[in-house]
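Example for tutorial group B:
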C-alpha cells in the first residue's frame, strides 16, 4: 500500500489519523480497535508503518486479529491482553528502565497483559508478578526483591482493590493502581475496587479507570522514558 493509497483508505474508513503526535507527545497514536472495522485498523497500521512508527492496537478481538496478522507478517498478537503490536521491518529497540506489573489474582491477567504489551511497545523493561493478593499476605513480601527497585509499579486488582495500598507501603516510587472488573455482585464491575483505590492512604498511589491496562502502562512508560531520557 503506497502513501497515497493509505491516505485514501483512511478517508474511506472515516479515519483522521493524528500524524503529528510523536513530535508532540513522544509516541504515535495508539489504535483502539474495538468498534472499528478490520479495514480501518489495517489502514491505520499501514500508514503508521509508512511513517516508520512502532504500532500498538488495543482491544483487538481474536476475529480481527485472524484477519490482520496475515496482512502484517511482523505482527504480534497477545490474545489474553487483546493487543496487536507491529514494528517496522528491520527495527529493534533496547529496553530501558524497569516497571513491575503486579496482579492480585490470576483473573487480573488480561489487564496486566495489556499493561505489559503497552510497556513493551514503549521500549520499557517489565517484570511480571502474578497472584499475590491480600488474601495470602505472605506472598507479596516474598517477591519484594523483584519490585522494590522499580522505577514504577503497576498493580491490577479487582474485588476490594486493597493490594495497591499495600504495595505502596513497600516502595518509594509511583504506584499506578488499575481497578479490574473481577469480582462478585457488590464489586459492581470494578467500581468497588476503584473507590477503594481512590481512597488509598498510601501517598504514592494514583489510579486509572477500570480495566484500563493501556492507560496504566502508558503513564508508567512516560515516567520511565523521562527518567532515562538521554
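The residue assignment follows.
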Amino acid at each position: 500500500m503506497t502513501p497515497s493509497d493509505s491516505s485514501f483508505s483512511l478517508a474511506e474508513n472515516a479515519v483522521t489519523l493524528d500524524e503529528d503526535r510523536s513530535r508532540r507527545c513522544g509516541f504515535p497514536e495508539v489504535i483502539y480497535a474495538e468498534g472499528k472495522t478490520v479495514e480501518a485498523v489495517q489502514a491505520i497500521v499501514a500508514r503508521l508503518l509508512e511513517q516508520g512508527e512502532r504500532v500498538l492496537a488495543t482491544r483487538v478481538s481474536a476475529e480481527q486479529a485472524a484477519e490482520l496478522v496475515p496482512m502484517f507478517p511482523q505482527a504480534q498478537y497477545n490474545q489474553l491482553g487483546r493487543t496487536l503490536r507491529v514494528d517496522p521491518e528491520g527495527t529493534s529497540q533496547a529496553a530501558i528502565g524497569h516497571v513491575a506489573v503486579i496482579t492480585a489474582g490470576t483473573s487480573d491477567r488480561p489487564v496486566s497483559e495489556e499493561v505489559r504489551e503497552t510497556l513493551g511497545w514503549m521500549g520499557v523493561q517489565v517484570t511480571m508478578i502474578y497472584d499475590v493478593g491480600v488474601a495470602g499476605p505472605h506472598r507479596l513480601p516474598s517477591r519484594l526483591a523483584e519490585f522494590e527497585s522499580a522505577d514504577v509499579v503497576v498493580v491490577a486488582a479487582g474485588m476490594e482493590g486493597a493490594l495497591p495500598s499495600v504495595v505502596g507501603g513497600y516502595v518509594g516510587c509511583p504506584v499506578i493502581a488499575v481497578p479490574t472488573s473481577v469480582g462478585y455482585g457488590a464489586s459492581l464491575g470494578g467500581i468497588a475496587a476503584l473507590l477503594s483505590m481512590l481512597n488509598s492512604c498510601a501517598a504514592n498511589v494514583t489510579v486509572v479507570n477500570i480495566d484500563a491496562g493501556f492507560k496504566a502502562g502508558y503513564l508508567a512508560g512516560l515516567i520511565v522514558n523521562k527518567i532515562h531520557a538521554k
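Helices lie at 3-12, 21-25, 38-50, 62-68, 109-121, 163-168, 191-198, 213-227. Compare this with the pattern of hydrophobic and polar residues in the output above.
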